[in-house]
Amino acid sequence: MQNRQEKISQVVVTAGQMRDIEKRIFAAGMPVVALMEKVAGLIARRIQEIPPTSVKKAYSVPLNTPFLRESPQAGGSRVGILVGPGHNGGDALVVARELHFRGYEIWIYSPFSKLKELTSQHLQYAQSLGIPIYQTIEQLPDSDLLIDGLFGFGLERNLTDPIASAINQLNELSVPIYSIDLPSGLHTDTGEVLGTAIRATYTFCLGLWKLAFFQDQALEYLGKAELIDFDIPLADVEAVLKDAPRIKRITRATALATLPLPRPPVTHKYKEGHLLLICGSRRYAGGAILTGLGARASGVGMLSIAVPESLKSLLVSHLPEALIVGCPETETGAIAQLQLPENTDLSSFNAIACGPGLTRDATPIVQEVIKSDCPLILDADGLNILAQMGAIATLKKRQPVTVLTPHTGEFQRLFPDVPDAKHDRVQAVREAATQSGAVVLLKGARTAIANPQGAVWIVPESTPALARGGSGDVLTGLLGGLLAQAATKQIPVEDIVATAAWWHSQAGILAAQERTELGVDAFTLTQYLIKALT
Ligand SMILES: NC(=O)C1=CN([C@@H]2O[C@H](COP(=O)(O)OP(=O)(O)OC[C@H]3O[C@@H](n4cnc5c(N)ncnc54)[C@H](O)[C@@H]3O)[C@@H](O)[C@H]2O)[C@@H](O)CC1
Ligand SMILES: Nc1ncnc2c1ncn2[C@@H]1O[C@H](COP(=O)(O)OP(=O)(O)O)[C@@H](O)[C@H]1O
Ligand SMILES: [K+]
C-alpha cells in the first residue's frame, strides 16, 4: 500500500477544491489560527534550512549577493516580508515573527489598509515586537531575501496599481523571493498572470499541489517549487474530489510501478509486445532512426519498422535487431504502400506508432492505419494528416485505442474548436480527449495527458534541454514500445502513456545534469533512457 505522503504528492487540486478541503478541516474542529501557526512554522523552518546555493538563479541573483546565511546571528540576514490582505499575508506574518525570534533582521511591507482579522492581529503583534512596518514601496530598506505573502489562492481579479507597480519594482530588485503558496499574481488554476506577478526564486506550495504549478505559462514565475505537507487528512481530499475526473501528478513511484518490470521468467518475444513503427521518408530519414532507438529502449519484444525502400539499409545498420520493412515509395520518397511480410497484416501487431518523418505524401498510409483495429499512436505528420481528415469526426468512428502526441501547434490544427491551449493547457487537453475519444498527450515544458473520461496526468518536472528537433521522435518510439507491451499485459493505456512521458523527461533531466542543457541532442537522449531508470 502506498504511504500517505506518496498519495498526497500525486494529488493536484484547483483553488475551488482546495477551499472545500480546508472548509472540511475547519468544520471538523481544527482552529484556523492553529493551522496557520502550523503551516507558517513549517515554512519558517524550511527558509532556515534551504542552502543558499540551491536557489541561485543567474537572472535574478548576482553572484556576490550576500545571501541568506545559515547563521543569521553571525551574518545578520535581512528579510523583507510582503503582507497581503488575506490569510496568505497571515502566514507571512507568522513567518516574520518566527524569523524575528531566530535572530533575523525583519521588516514588513503591508500596503493594504483592510486586512482579514487574523492577519490584522498578527500584524499588530509584529508591531509590538518592534518589527518595522512600511506601507509604501519607496520606504523599503535593503534586504537579502523577500518573503511573498501578498496573495495566495484567494486572488480573484486582476492586480491593479499601486500593488501591481509595487510588484514590478520588487521583481526588479536583485533579491531572491520566496513565495508562500504561489507567486502573488498567478491564477491558481490556469497559471495565468493576473495583471502582474511576483517572479519567485522558490515557491512553497501549501498542503496540496495546485494546478498552476503544472501550467507552462506559470513556470518562469514559480522558481523551484516545493510542497509543504501540513497533514491534510486523505479522507478530506477524497471526500472533495469524489468521482470528479482527477488530475494526477506522475511520480517516480507510480511510473516505475506501471513499467512492465519484472518480466515473467518464462516468456517469449511476442509475449513482450510487437510494435510496428511507420515512419520516415527520403527527406526525413533521421527521425525514423530516432523513433526506432526510442522503441528499442522500451524493451519491446519485437520491433518492426516500415520505411521507404531506400531507407532500409540505413535502418538495418542502426537497428540490427529490428525487422525493417522496405516499402514502395512515391516519387517524393514517401511510403506509397505498406508492404508487410507474408501472413502479416496490421492486426498482427500489439501497437502501431505512425508519423515521424512521413511527409503529407503518406496520407493513404495514415488513412489505412486509422481504419485498422490495432492500438495506434499518431505523431507528427500522422497528426497533420489526421487534422486534414477532421480529427474529431475521424476518431469517433475508430473503436480501438488511439493515442495522439501533439505539440501546441499540432494540437491547434487537430482541435481548432477546443479553447486555446495557451490559456489553459490542462483544460484544453481534457476537452480534446473527451471530444475525440482518444488519449491525448499535449507536449510542452509540462506535458499533460488526458483520457476520454477527462482524467489528466501531468509530468511534474522536465528540462528545456528537450526543446530540440528529434526529441519528440524518441518519445513516440518509447511510447510505442511500451504500448505494445501494455497490450499484452493489460496495463491501462493512459497509465503507460503517462509513464512514457515521465521516463522521457527523466532521461532528459539526467542527460542535462551530466552534459548541461546544451548536450542533450535526441540521439544522446536515447542513450539516457535506460540510465534514468537505474
Ligand atoms: N488559514 C490558514 O491557516 C491557512 C491559510 N492558508 C493560506 O491562506 C491563503 C488563502 O487565504 P485567503 O483566502 O485569505 O486569500 P489570499 O490571502 O490569497 O488573498 C485574498 C485576499 O485578497 C483580496 N484580493 C483578492 N484579489 C485581489 C486583488 N486583485 N487586489 C486586491 N485584493 C485582492 C481578497 O479580498 C482577500 O482579502 C492560502 O493561499 C494560504 O497562503 C492555507 O494554505 C493553509 C491554511
Ligand atoms: N521547454 C521544455 N521543457 C521540457 N520539455 C520540453 C520543452 N520543450 C519541448 N520539450 C519536450 O521535447 C519534446 C519535443 O517534441 P516535438 O515538439 O514533437 O519536437 P520534435 O518532433 O522535433 O522532436 C516533447 O516531448 C516536449 O515535451
Ligand atoms: K504568495
UniProtKB/TrEMBL annotation:
AMP binds at residues 443-447, 472. Binds 1 potassium ion per subunit. Gene3D superfamilies: 3.40.1190.20, YjeF N-terminal domain. InterPro entries: Carbohydrate_kinase_pred_CS, CARKD, Nnr, Ribokinase-like, YjeF_N_dom, YjeF_N_dom_sf. (6S)-NADPHX binds at residues 87-91, 152-158, 181, 357, 407, 473. It holds the Pfam family Carb_kinase. Residues 18-238 form the YjeF N-terminal domain. It comes from the Bacteria. CDD domains: YXKO-related (cd01171). K(+) binds at residues 88, 148, 184. Residues 252-534 form the YjeF C-terminal domain. Its cofactor is Mg(2+); K(+). Keywords: ATP-binding, Isomerase, Lyase, Metal-binding, Multifunctional enzyme, NAD, NADP, Nucleotide-binding, Potassium. It catalyses: (6S)-NADPHX + ADP = AMP + phosphate + NADPH + H(+); (6R)-NADHX = (6S)-NADHX; (6S)-NADHX + ADP = AMP + phosphate + NADH + H(+); (6R)-NADPHX = (6S)-NADPHX. Its EC number is 4.2.1.136, 5.1.99.6. NCBIfam families: yjeF_cterm, yjeF_nterm. Homotetramer. In the C-terminal section; belongs to the NnrD/CARKD family. PANTHER family: ATP-DEPENDENT (S)-NAD(P)H-HYDRATE DEHYDRATASE, ATP-DEPENDENT (S)-NAD(P)H-HYDRATE DEHYDRATASE FAMILY MEMBER. Bifunctional enzyme that catalyzes the epimerization of the S- and R-forms of NAD(P)HX and the dehydration of the S-form of NAD(P)HX at the expense of ADP, which is converted to AMP. This allows the repair of both epimers of NAD(P)HX, a damaged form of NAD(P)H that is a result of enzymatic or heat-dependent hydration. Catalyzes the epimerization of the S- and R-forms of NAD(P)HX, a damaged form of NAD(P)H that is a result of enzymatic or heat-dependent hydration. This is a prerequisite for the S-specific NAD(P)H-hydrate dehydratase to allow the repair of both epimers of NAD(P)HX. This is Bifunctional NAD(P)H-hydrate repair enzyme. It comes from Nostoc linckia FACHB-391. The gene is nnrE.
